[in-house]
C-alpha cells in the first residue's frame, strides 16, 4: 500500500498541508515499520520465495490495525468510520469474486510478467487463494485485474486502500489546524 500512502501525501502537499507534522509523533511509525516489512515480503516474492504468503491475511489485519494509533491521536473517528465502510465494501466485493470462482481469486497479470513479479509457476508454488485468471473466470471485473507491476489488485482492494488514504489525509489535515481549532469536525 506504499503507493496509496505516497499518493495521499502528495495530494495533501498539493492541497497546501504540511506533511511533516505527521512524522512528529510516534503514532505513524508502526505503519511505516509494517510497510517496510510488507516491502520485504514483496521482495521475497520477486526472489521466488512464497513462504510468507500464508501469513498475508494476518499481516493485513495487523497493518490496518496500526492505523488505530493515528485515529486515536488525531481524533479521526468519522473518517475512520467512513474508511471502515470502504473496507467492508471492499471485503464484500472480494468475497463475491472469490465465491463466484470456486473459492479462488483469479489474477490477471500483465505488467507483472515483465517486472518478474509473476510467473505461471508462481501460482502453483504459492499455493494460496490466488489462481491465474482465464476465459472461464466469472465476474472478471471484481477479480485482481489492476496490475501495478509488483502487485495485482481488485476493485475491492482499491476500496480497502481508501481506508488508508482517508485516515492519513484526515490526520494530516487535523494536525495542520491551529491547536485551538482541533476540537471541531474533520469536515470543516
Automatic annotation (TrEMBL):
Keyword vocabulary terms for this entry: Membrane, Transmembrane, Transmembrane helix
Origin: domain of life: Bacteria
Pfam families the record matches: DUF5317
Transmembrane segments: 21-40, 52-72, 77-98, 148-172
Name of protein: DUF5317 domain-containing protein
Source species: Clostridium punense
Amino acid at each position: 500500500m506504499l503507493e496509496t500512502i505516497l499518493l495521499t501525501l502528495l495530494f495533501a502537499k498539493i492541497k497546501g498541508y504540511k506533511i511533516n507534522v505527521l512524522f512528529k509523533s510516534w503514532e505513524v511509525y508502526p505503519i511505516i515499520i509494517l510497510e517496510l516489512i510488507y516491502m520485504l515480503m514483496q521482495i521475497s516474492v520477486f526472489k521466488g520465495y512464497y513462504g510468507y504468503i500464508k501469513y498475508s491475511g494476518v499481516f493485513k489485519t495487523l497493518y490496518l490495525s496500526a492505523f488505530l494509533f493515528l485515529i486515536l491521536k488525531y481524533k479521526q473517528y468519522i473518517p475512520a468510520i467512513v474508511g471502515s465502510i470502504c473496507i467492508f465494501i471492499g471485503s464484500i466485493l472480494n468475497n463475491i469474486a472469490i465465491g463466484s470462482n470456486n473459492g479462488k481469486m483469479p489474477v490477471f497479470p500483465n505488467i507483472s510478467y515483465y517486472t518478474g513479479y509473476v510467473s505461471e509457476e508462481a501460482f502453483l508454488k504459492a499455493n494460496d487463494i490466488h489462481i491465474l485468471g482465464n476465459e472461464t473466470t466469472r465476474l472478471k471485473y471484481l477479480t485482481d485485474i489492476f496490475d501495478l507491476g509488483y502487485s495485482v489488485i481488485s476493485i475491492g482492494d482499491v476500496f480497502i486502500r481508501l481506508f488508508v488514504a482517508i485516515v492519513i489525509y484526515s490526520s494530516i489535515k487535523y494536525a495542520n489546524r491551529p491547536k485551538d481549532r482541533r476540537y471541531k469536525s474533520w469536515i470543516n
